[in-house]
Amino acid sequence: MDFTPEIKDKLNQLQEKYTAMGQDMASYLDGLLYADFLTYWDYIHLDTLLSLQSPKTPFPDEEIFIMYHQITELYFKLALHECRQIAEHKNLTVEFFTARVKRINAYFNALTTSFEVMVDGMEKEQFLKFRMSLLPASGFQSGQYRMIEICATDFIRLVDKSKREELSTATTDEQFENIYWKFGATELASGKQTLTLKQFIKKYSAQFLQLAKDRRLTNFSALYHQLQSDGNNVSALAEELRKLDLYVNVEWPLSHYKSAVRYLEKDPVDVAATGGTNWQKYLPPRFQKRIFYPFLWSDEQMEEWGKGWVLSVLKTLKNKD
């Protein structure tokens, strides 16, 4: 059999590659000869993936709850993959930055549009029973979500709104002590930190602090201002960042709020979240007013942040009932 010029060229390139590494190309070709063909299920570890659901109760809908949260974490991992590419790019351009933020927006669009699985995809009676076996675990404890926030904006924007002005020149460590989500995981009666929050801080605080320090000059807000100051046209990037702001700080929390209202709202007293979080005050965007990019919004838009969305959701849910 005669080799085509293309095959000969590739063999020569392989020979150069392995010679430069002090390796014997023939040995590697033996490995290729004896290796089996790759299959789809082996490549994505399908059997392992499908075995990762371990319900704590016999209620069928608990498996839906587990799988959807696993899907969520995979989307978060995709988003963080893009965050790293942006932050670590040696010669970042507006075009690259915009394209990667657009990918992150696509991931959050998939998440927010699929959250009806959580809102209407489980029987309320089953949920209220199996949720008690999950104590004190909570979706609040998603470390990847917090990492996306840290990558997306200046760290001061994640400080509780009542402390932002006071801590605007404080150290990252001081600001972290007043990060907004700590105020959403306090016991309603005593005001003390919940076990959920204590577990979360113990596992992730060192990682969060290091990431915040690593991203001080390479978070999305800082990079946007740098590219803008260099004279680049950032209009398309600004549009994608506005979308990201809405997805992360309005649409995603609101999706959870819809689910909480569906399953936990009850007269005369609402059902508590498994982690003991104050979901009534913590989830609605209009209360938190987390805004990554205030320089991209008007004063009126920020003043009305999340209000219309929350009101429309409450109206829709009441009409369903």
Automatic annotation (TrEMBL):
Q: What Pfam families does the annotation carry?
A: Trp_dioxygenase
Gene3D superfamilies, per the entry: 1.20.58.480
Q: What is this protein called?
A: Tryptophan 2,3-dioxygenase family protein
Species of provenance: Pedobacter jamesrossensis
